[in-house]
Amino acid sequence: SSLPPARSSIPCLPQLPILGSLPWLGGGLPPHLLFTKLAHRYGSLFGLFLGPHYTVVVNSHQHAKEVLLQRGRDFAGRPSMVTTELLTRGGKDIAFSDYSPLWKLHRRLVHNSFTLFGEGTSRLQDVVFSAVDSLCSELMSNGSRGFDPSAAVTRAVTNVVCTLVFSSTYRHGDAELQEVISYNNGIVETIARGGLVDIYPWMKVFPNSSLRKLKECIAVRDRLLTRKLEEHKASLAEGDPSDLLDALLKGKKGGPKSHGLEGEGITDDHVLMTAAEAFGAGVETTSTTLLWILAYLLHHPEVQQRVQKELDENVGADRAANLSDRGHLPYLDCVINEGMRIRPVSPVLIPHTAMTDSSIGGHAVRRGTRVLVNMWSIHHDPQNWDKPDLFQPERFLDDQGNRATPSCFMPFGAGPRVCVGESLARMELFLFLSSLLQRMSFRLPEGAPPPNLQGRLGVVLQPMPYEVVVIPRPGWEGGAR
Ligand code: HEM
């Protein structure tokens, strides 16, 4: 309705039948880097064909704001993909379900449930603290030996999500925790490799070992979560919900009619898929962000020291840092932000689709068009950032030393599809990093090269494996207090 009158078309890559633009996407670069390179040639807004699917790629802050915020509703759809249909029982989750009144209700319910465990309650903090304590003693158990921290970090974050979703807390080596970690890894790996199936849905008919493995992992996941769901149904009591499953079961009782919706409303399948998604969307992202920040701290010992100085001056060594200290630890926040700016774990967000005819930058965009927002190029655009390739946490401070977050910083996306786990993730990142850096210092093993910062793209953008040595700080030799 408010489309500008004169419109030129969006520059588009060449294409062939069936293959689309794929022959022009060679070179093996991961999408965020490839798109950044193509933007130099075609301009920051360009189109291409991923197989048969016309896709517009947005590389500038201004256009991203249009897509996510100003016309966020227009672009709040999600394309249907083979792997994600399998993963979510045909879109009964939040992340991959197309925009609809039921989706909105579901998203609101999930959001409210997260808030229950979040700010204003000490519950999340307690949950993270117990995971941090075991993480710290696990890390310190390596003595002066170099080791890869990723398994321990993933285990700690998985444990947090297990507690939030179904109130289980596991000790190190627990078989059920191991099962959760291994099916989650299996899903993450196969989804990352299953890319082609999503471009050519007809490949579904071919035997495909990745797809088979994915189905197996999903079956294990669903067996475990169904058992948890049944247990929760049996023990559901009046009063405050004790975890996400409880909150969803209570919330869904309202029923669709009370919200003026037709049809079934929020079903057991929705509850199950939401629980599954807390793992799918909440573990790999958070643990990988932590691993990126540790990698950068190994490159910048002076940054690590400055965070520790801030902790020493504002928290001390007599107690663990907690959420109420956050206001006094601006530099730590900057380090977290700078980590997410320079290495966004979800560099092209999740694909969006246009739900109606709309426009970007004054160019018409037809309903059904897929839209990829290249947050990587926005986070590395020299027009937005001074020396974007350097790790400089101070860039998130203003002249007075106060926090300043530029609007072109969007590691969680923005608008109707913004990450629902954002505040949860931020609390986790803060609590994990403040506790870790209060209790120990991270160093490179003797003679080891600093971590490779290039990154490799699985489901998320991850650092190459690296090793650390941890040195307990005075007063924390035992790991916990
Ligand atoms: C969506 C980032 C942690 C749940 C997203 C999106 C991004 C993102 C970029 C896509 C936005 C878009 O498509 O425009 C991150 C980062 C995290 C993190 C960087 C950690 C550092 C979490 C956690 C949870 C979570 C802890 C839940 C437990 C979700 C869900 C969506 C989502 C459900 C889909 C939202 C929708 O489609 O409406 N996240 N996320 N995320 N995230 Fe996160």
TrEMBL record:
Entry keyword set: Endoplasmic reticulum, Heme, Iron, Lipid-binding, Membrane, Metal-binding, Microsome, Monooxygenase, Oxidoreductase, Steroidogenesis, Transmembrane, Transmembrane helix
Membrane topology: Peripheral membrane protein
MF GO annotations: heme binding; iron ion binding; lipid binding; steroid 17-alpha-monooxygenase activity; steroid 21-monooxygenase activity
Pfam families: p450 (PF00067)
Subcellular location: Endoplasmic reticulum membrane; Microsome membrane
SUPFAM superfamilies: Cytochrome P450
Main location: endoplasmic reticulum
Protein name according to UniProt: Steroid 21-hydroxylase
Record-level GO BP terms: hormone biosynthetic process; progesterone metabolic process; steroid biosynthetic process
Assigned EC number: 1.14.14.16
Cofactor(s) in the UniProt record: heme
Major enzyme class: oxidoreductase
Superkingdom: Eukaryota
Family: Belongs to the cytochrome P450 family.
